[in-house]
């Protein structure tokens, strides 16, 4: 029984952490699963690993977090599964099987929808920062093409922050070249709009929430990761200004 409880906690925690859930959400979910099973679960979570044990017992298990992405759909499904378990709508074995199936699923939006969303964010953010409507179609196009390039570079590069640097550099070169040709009128707001899909907004928000919840280690590490991503974007734009 103890092994099954720890297995369920590790599966739920790994899925939540892999998809950028907040630390307090992870720990609260694991403790609720353990408490409903009749055990007081003790857990320690970081950005790169989860340690789970039962209070008063020597049995402790851990799992490593190597890849992280953003998938709020999986976080929502984990929350629903844990509620169903606590409300006696699922047994522990059913919960484990559902968690294993959820971990195997690739619940991502299709690439064309991601590209379209990135393009819409680019155009709308350009308007929000004071841009003119006549510059929105071009920002929409550059932002969408930039996201396509980003998706194509992520697999072969395998280097964190390099993809954001290169795509922001390429976007900066294109926008500055079009600005010199007189095609782009408001260079600054167009640049802001085009790089906005790559800004780590979720990481920044979660880091602040972790810090406010008292998870100082994870909050600082997430803030550092978000800061390095933002710096990579800024350095790419700055390098583009030097080249063009």
Automatic annotation (TrEMBL):
Keywords: Cell membrane, Membrane, Transmembrane, Transmembrane helix. It is found in: Cell membrane. GO terms for cellular component: plasma membrane. Residues 8-243 form the Threonine/serine exporter-like N-terminal domain. GO terms for biological process: succinate transport. The chain crosses the membrane at residues 135-153, 165-183, 189-208, 220-241. One of its GO terms (molecular function) is transmembrane transporter activity. Its main location: membrane. It is a multi-pass membrane protein. Belongs to the ThrE exporter (TC 2.A.79) family. This is Uncharacterized membrane protein YjjP, DUF1212 family. It comes from Pilibacter termitis.
